[in-house]
Amino acid sequence: MQQAKRTPHYRALPDIRGLQSLSDLPILDKAALEASRCHSAGICAAGRASGEVLRSGATSSQPRYIVYSQTDWSNMIREAVPLFYSLGLRAATS
Fold first, then answer.
1. Are residues 57 and 34 in the same domain?
2. What is the mean pLDDT of the chain?
3. Does residue 42 share a domain with residue 1?
4. How far is the CA of 9 from the CAs of 20, 52, 59, 67, in angstroms?
5. Where in the sequence is the domain holding 33, given as residue range(s)?
6. Distance separating alpha carbons of residues 8 and 58, to the nearest angstrom
7. Model confidence over 51-60: pLDDT tens digits?
8. Which helix (H) or strand (E) holds 65?
9. Which residues contact 54 (CB under 8 A, 6 or more apart)?
10. Which top-rank group of organisms is this from (predicted)?
11. Per-residue 3-state assignment (H helix, E strand, C coil) for 6-60
12. Around 31, how many Cα atoms within 13 Å sit in the side-chain half-sphere?
């Protein structure tokens, strides 16, 4: 909580004094995430990401940025490669 309270987004939220006040916190929704730029310190409580920033338009025409830490990115690759092999995908031989 202390690290999160260093950011403008989380600092503006009500203080939590116990389990009873957890319901006072708003849900972090898609609109709040999209309102914060990926490199903004406004919502990011940790240091700069050490991995990848992916840009996606998804189903909208608005760009969406997704930041992955190096650890998250490595874990996704480690888990995806066996899945691709099990589906029959192989490395190119050209």
1. no
2. 77
3. yes
4. 22, 23, 27, 18
5. 1-46
6. 28
7. 677 777 667 7
8. strand 64-68
9. 65, 66, 68
10. Bacteria
11. HCHHHHCCCCCCCHHHHHHCCCCCHHHHHHCCCCCCCCCCCCCCCCEEEEECCCC
12. 2
